[in-house]
């Protein structure tokens, strides 16, 4: 398959702000878990657009929802509501603890809304001095100035002038540090129920339970950032359901639209009451096109067979990675849950996750990294099992080529 090549990679360097360093190849077509570039080269997709393409590329349910809605109504603004937004909000309250939904365009915006709600609720209920937000080192919550400050990676927030105040970072999974620090001044604890960008770190059961208990004790809200873990990624519709800990506020985005930009903040009626008319908003939030696509995604992902299929696919990945590791002794462990997995490089391979990513690309496989030592896999939740098998074969070949060049 050859596709007409109109735009070259050099155009990126010419016209785009240089905050990304994209690969040389340019994908032009995708179907299921396969992608083709301008030259017609085929790739198996274990990256899923960073945990976004949860139903793969051009899934019929999504294409149908988008084309149908595109003939009806694209945009209204929040001066009015619309049917797709109402249907999607209702559906999200049915698959989660939530009673109320606020729509945004991205994970960062959903988190921005969550943080503003937490601060507003604390100020209204307890007074302005209850404003501390506790978050965790290596956490990631988005790129707006507020969310990047709450995220626990200074490299992303330094160099932009004074940061929003009263944000404290503690080590993830450190129960004692949290017990020692949290107080009645704390308005919220924000955490990922499985750290994504920070290296695919699962919380211990004790940590998850203790965070909830301490929030209750100090009248602080528990905010779960489920931007990466949500919408079936861990095998539960939301990751909190597998932890047995319910947050007060939850943010969701990435795979919510399966590739169409949309985010949402979910919460309770009691908390939502503090976001009165005019306190927050979004021009595009609740856009009919986005909500129609997202409803189709949620309908498919929330099916028991889809969620069950995630666990089956996780097992295939773990078996395949173990087999590769038996041959090449490159990984120290495989972390994560469901189809948010991280293969951690051992001491001999420190700092070389990107080398694995590049070598995989040369073999026709798309993977991700989570830091310099973790190769991350976030494929479609419905990826064909033969694609898993073939993709792992390509990963084997990629690692073989790295081992050979090392020798």
From TrEMBL:
Protein's cellular compartments: Cytoplasm
Enzyme Commission number(s): 2.6.1.11
Modified residues (N6-(pyridoxal phosphate)lysine): 254
Gene Ontology CC terms: cytoplasm
Keywords for this protein: Amino-acid biosynthesis, Aminotransferase, Arginine biosynthesis, Cytoplasm, Pyridoxal phosphate, Transferase
Record: residues binding pyridoxal 5'-phosphate: 107-108, 140, 225-228, 283
Catalytic activity: N(2)-acetyl-L-ornithine + 2-oxoglutarate = N-acetyl-L-glutamate 5-semialdehyde + L-glutamate
Pfam family, one: Aminotran_3
GO MF annotation list: identical protein binding; N2-acetyl-L-ornithine:2-oxoglutarate 5-aminotransferase activity; pyridoxal phosphate binding
PROSITE patterns named among the record's database cross-references: AA_TRANSFER_CLASS_3 (PS00600)
Protein origin, superkingdom: Bacteria
GO annotation, biological process: L-arginine biosynthetic process
UniProt cofactor(s): pyridoxal 5'-phosphate
Miscellaneous comment: May also have succinyldiaminopimelate aminotransferase activity, thus carrying out the corresponding step in lysine biosynthesis.
Family per similarity comment: Belongs to the class-III pyridoxal-phosphate-dependent aminotransferase family. ArgD subfamily.
Record's protein name: Acetylornithine aminotransferase
Native organism: Vibrio sinensis
Gene behind this protein: argD
